[in-house]
Amino acid sequence: MQFDFQQNFFQMFGLPECFKLDGTVLEQNFLTLQSQVHPDKFAHLPESERRLSLQWATRVNEAYQTLRKPVDRARYLLKLRDVDTQEETNTAMPADFLMQQMEWREAIDEARHAGSLDDLDALEARVQHEAKALLQQLEASLDQAHDYPAAAGVVRKLRFFEKLSEEVASAYDELDH
Amino acid sequence: MALLQISEPGLSTAPHQHRLAIGIDLGTTNSLVATVRNGISAVLNDSEGRALLPSVVRYHADGGVQVGDAAQSAQSEDPVNTIVSVKRFMGRGLKDVADVMSLPYRFVDEPGMLKLRTVAGVKSPVEISAEILKSLRERAEQALGGELVGAVITVPAYFDDAQRQATKDAARLAGLNVLRLLNEPTAAAIAYGLDNAAEGIYAVYDLGGGTFDISILRLSRGVFEVLAANGDSALGGDDFDHRIYCWLLEKNGLSALGAQDTRLLLTRARAAKEELTDRSETRIAAVLGSGEVIDTVLTRQDFQEMTQNLVARTIQPLRRALRDAGLTVDEVKGVVMVGGATRMPQVQRAVADFFKQTPLTNLDPDKVVALGAAIQANVLAGNRGGDEWLLLDVCPLSLGIETMGGLTEKIIPRNSTIPTARAQDFTTFKDGQTAMSIHVVQGERELVSDCRSLARFELRGIPPMVAGAARIRVTYQIDADGLLSVSAREQTSGVESHIVVKPSYGLSDAEITQMLQDSTQYARDDMLARALREQQVEAGQLLEAVQSALDQDGADLLGEDERARIATVMHRVREAMQGSDHQAIKKAVTQLNEATVQFAQARMDRNVARALTGHRIADLDR
Question: Which of B280, B310, B340 is the last residue of a domain?
């Protein structure tokens, strides 16, 4: 087996190309790879090897981060299948979904203005709960039904949840100040 | 098990001499140097047995420089030319220094980084820090009796790119080969981890003289993984001194003191702070230049009240770091205290309250960072210890780019494991636009004006197209020192522009060379001799590494032609090493590097393949 820049991230860690993934194996293989290529292992070696090590270690980190986060992993899988998730172009979402998103945003704003950490905690838990249900749908359409357009639709929904999480995080940051 | 028997790629297996490497804690108040001898990390003392070198530099009119205790004792007498806590000015502009009015220096405001006017001329914080590093380098060379291969220099985890770059420049100026910039809390964790064989989630609370860091780490089976770092690079023990100083002014109805009196009272304030660690009250007495006598009693109670909000300011970053790591307080197994300022009882109590446990203080909080840095330096220098470990650190601050309307678009989010690279595509705003200005910023805020500006550069020569048609890919790369380089490339035409982010005021290579030449310690002959020695050492190491690689893999991975070609270039290096022209050696070394790039790549591929194969077998075993 050759390890090169053409390899996809799943191949890099010796994992099957599917959404469901054994986090422990991913982590172990990540650490094994990093302990081979990390710049600390090359600090005393000539410039050319140090440069290679930097490139490798960067690539391994990128691969690990991508596979570790479920939504990124789904995006990546779909990209491997040449399916565009159309997150920038396809904005047609069900009305009730958008309504729900708006309500959540308002709730975050309210918690922010009220300066209530408890409200934020509760909101974050609800947002995470909903996102989890979507991740289960994602697994079903990617690994069982192999319905990639449907999976792309779920990813588009999860994109909204990523934005929500960012808003929650920035609200927390603001309350800390 | 197969897993344990995989050899490291590129590492020489030939036995070699122990390479001398040091770890330096370049602190705000004190600096230290440590090294690993006979497998044990120890701080190197000066000729009088002192471990801590006060980070104080005094300049004399004749160009002479004093560093450490001698300089410190002159603080009150010659405050303008005696620079203390210079670390607070590294990579900072005048507007970044909050208490500039109460400092006794003659500041020179320069774009980017301020400078200080002394009796020996205008000095940059980089030059002043270099004096401290030089002093430690000499201490180490004397103690170890040989040429140093390199040094690990620690920096606060929360240092931004400008502060890191300034630190690296200072080390180069001091004639040190920087093996790595290492985050202080991570260095402390290394010292603790190896001594105590700790496993689990640990928090490192590092309150130094001028900086505050919090790092959340996971320690497991020889892996130090930093999960999140946060902090405040303008908060430290100095601020506690300053509170006492302000209290003294108020209490005695004083205002607008001269430089000498200011320094005198700050020194008394620091002594009072230290006394209050063990006592419930302390007396502060001083005679000012005007003859006015100050004689006041400060109680611990009052001290704690006046510094309450400083302590509180360290708690916010703790919360943020835990949240970034996705952890709760209950999951933290231990809290390590680092930095002399953590001796203050109110700090220990606040940390204990927050984490609901007594913090660990069994290693000397002043020494633990240097000890960890030395352990890491030993490994980076290529001395194989019995224990092998892997250190995975993060960048503490997000890196972004300015987009339309002065908004920040984050490209690398904070707490990404380094080294890392991220690319993002941007496009043109106007029809026929042929250039694009790239503004690199660091920080968490939405508005560019609230973030730190690192660099600006332009991508020129974009072929004229309608607005929005060009595809400009901007790539940010952070290396293992946490330093950034940025490149931009127009995708359809291949027009490219690349910079290593030298913050706008950063020193160019030419400036550093110039400073080295100007420095009285480096007469020209010395410099040439040094350059020659360095090149000889580097060439020798390279030959050793290449030979060992050839012995291992040359026969399998290279054809006869290829081996002959490498042998020719190796011969050229050996010849050049006999001569006294360091440029010629450098040229031959570069040629050898170039000749072995493909070989190195092939070896790396093979080793990684081996590693993964090994892993698969291991997986089957389970």
Answer: B310
Task: Using CB atoms within 10 Å of the CB of residue B547, give its burial: 0 to 12 exposed, 13 to 18 middle, 19+ buried.
Answer: middle
Could you tell me what percentage of chain B is helix, strand and coil, using 3-state DSSP and rounding each to the nearest 5? 40, 25, 30
Residues of chain A with CATH 1.20.1280.20: 95-176
Give, as one character, the DSSP assignment of residue B428: -
Beta carbons of B601 and A52 less than 8 Å apart: yes
Residue of A nearest to B149 (CA): A44
Distance from C-alpha of B135 to C-alpha of B167, rounded to nearest angstrom: 15
Query: DSSP 3-state assignment of B422?
Result: strand
Residues B83 and B125: their CA atoms lie apart, in Å, by 9
- Residue span of the structural domain in which B536 resides: 524-612
The closest alpha carbon to B575, from B562, B590, B589, belongs to B589
Comparing A153 with B383, the larger pLDDT belongs to A153
| Confidence grade of residue B622 (pLDDT, cut at 50, 70, 90) | very low
Task: Tell me the C-alpha distance between B264 and B329, whole Å.
Answer: 42
Q: Test B480 with A57 for CB contact under 8 angstroms.
A: yes
A61-80 residues touching B, CB cutoff 8 A: 61-62, 64-65
Q: Residues, chain A, total?
A: 177
Beta carbons of A35 and B388 less than 8 Å apart: yes
For residue range B477-510, list pLDDT tens digits in order: 999 999 888 888 888 877 777 666 655 445 555 6
B136, B24: one domain: yes
Query: In this predicted structure, what is the pLDDT of residue B121?
Result: 92
* Chain-chain contact of B390 with A34 (C-beta, under 8 angstroms): yes
pLDDT of B212 strictly over 50? yes
The DSSP annotation for A6-41 comes to TS-HHHHTT--SSS---HHHHHHHHHHHHHHH-GGG
Into how many domains does chain B fold? 4
Q: Which of B587, B539, B595, B591 is nearest to B562 (CA)?
A: B595
Characterize the bridge pairing of strands B21-26 and B334-338: unpaired
Partner residue opposite B381 with nearest CB, options A2, A34, A44: A44
Is cis: bond before B419, omega within 30 of 0?
yes
Are B88 and B156 contacting, i.e. CB atoms less than 8 angstroms apart?
Answer: no
Give buried/exposed letters for A149-167 (b at 16+ CB in 10 A, else e): eebbbbbbbbbbbeebeeb
The percentage of chain A sitting over the pLDDT mark of 90, rounded to a whole number, equals 57
> Which residues of B are less than 8 Å from A43 in CB distance?
150, 179-180, 380-382
Collect all residues of chain A within an 8 Å Cβ-Cβ radius of residue B621: none
Give ∠ CA A10-A12-A15 in degrees, rounded to 5: 40
CA of B24, closest CA in chain A: separation in Å?
17
Q: What is the pLDDT of residue B107?
A: 93
> Is there a contact between A41 and B477 if contact means CB atoms under 8 Å apart?
no
Nearest neighbour of A58 by CB, restricted to B19, B419, B616? B419
Low-confidence winner among A44-58, B7-21, B55-69, B319-333 (lowest mean pLDDT): B7-21
Phi, psi angle pair for B285, to nearest 5°: -125, 140
pLDDT band at B615 (very low <50, low <70, confident <90, very high): very low
Domain end (from B500, B521, B542): B521
CA angle B537, B543, B544 (to 5 degrees): 90
Which residues in A lie closer than 8 A to residue B190 (C-beta atoms)? none
Question: Is the residue at B317 inside a domain?
Answer: no
- How many CA atoms, within 13 angstroms, populate the side-chain half-sphere of residue B261? 16
Region A9-68: CATH code = 1.10.287.110
Choose from A48, A55, A72, A121 for mutation: most chain B CBs within 10 A.
Answer: A48
Class of the CATH domain delimited by A95-176: mainly alpha
